[in-house]
Amino acid sequence: MKIKILLTLLITSFSVSSFTEVAECYSWNANPGKSAQFMNTVQEAAVIHTKLGANIGVYAMNVGGIGQEIQYCMRWDNLLDWGKSKDKMAQSQEMQAFFAKASQNPTGTLVATISGANLDQSAKADLFDKPMAFQVQVWEVAPGKTLEVIANFQKAEKIIESLGLQVEIYQETAGGNGKMHYVVSADNWTKLSEGFAALGTSDKWNKFVASVSPNVAKLISTHNGSSMN
Questions:
Q1: Is 96 found in the same domain as 131?
Q2: Are the C-beta atoms of 55 and 81 separated by less than 8 Å?
């Protein structure tokens, strides 16, 4: 019975991720004395990756990053677009020439990678194509509690978005082990802080928090940052 349940969850997970936004994020630190050159390299890579079908977001970590972390994220509308785009990247002479040039005089060091799938099937790769500030909570889900946690996250999303913030929920795929990333964003830091302040005084939110079992998921880490492109 446990095997049947596990297979059902796996099939459901792959089916959902096939039709939702897919993201890959690469965390970089500029090499000492090469911050300007590193950003030029990032911009050059973004132009090429965009040509090859990826939607590019570049983010500066504010708190919780690794060193002076810059996140370079590629997004696609769905898993099929991701596969086609990755094949184009592997076959692109322009991409190969870029990597060859970048490797001769490295301007940055790769410190982490992660990929994930958006749990919202209506989400598209361009959903972050705007100036934004964001905060991310990374959650580890207790065994057998995935569906309950997702339901709780979605309830929380409705309350948070009613206060003017945007919420996206990702589940880790390659590079991770299935943890959930709860992303709350706004147009700028002021609006983000105003939303959090409203949340703190919301009766609806406080009642929701009180109703959630603390044993279904564990908060692993948090970080925040803002868009650079």
A1: no
A2: no
Q: Is residue 158 part of a domain?
A: yes
What's the number of domains the chain is made of?
2
Q: pLDDT tens digits for 147-188?
A: 999 999 999 999 999 999 999 999 999 999 999 999 999 999
Nearest Cα neighbor of 29 from 60, 64, 57, 4 is 60
Q: State CA 26 to chain mean position distance.
A: 10
> For 181-209, what is each residue's pLDDT tens digit?
999 999 999 999 999 999 999 999 999 99
Per-residue pLDDT at 226 exceeds 50 = yes
220 plus 131 within the same structural domain: yes
CATH of the domain at 216: 3.30.70.100
b/e sequence 128-149, b meaning 16+ C-beta within 10 Å: beeebbbbbbbbebeeeebeeb
Q: How many other C-beta atoms can be found within 10 angstroms of the C-beta atom of residue 30?
A: 20
| Tokens coding 83 | 């596969």
- Note whether residue 153 is domain-resident: yes
Distance CA 94, CA 82 (A): 19
Q: Give the structural domain span for 95.
A: 17-118
Q: Give Cα 8 distance to the centre of its chain.
A: 25
Q: How far is CA 121 from each of CA 20, 53, 64, rounded to the nearest angstrom?
A: 5, 19, 29
Q: Name the one residue in this structure whose structure tokens are 């500030």.
A: 133
Inside any domain, residue 9: no
Each residue's pLDDT tens digit, 20-57 = 899 999 999 999 999 999 999 999 999 999 999 999 99
- How far apart CA 179 and CA 181 sit, in angstroms, is 7
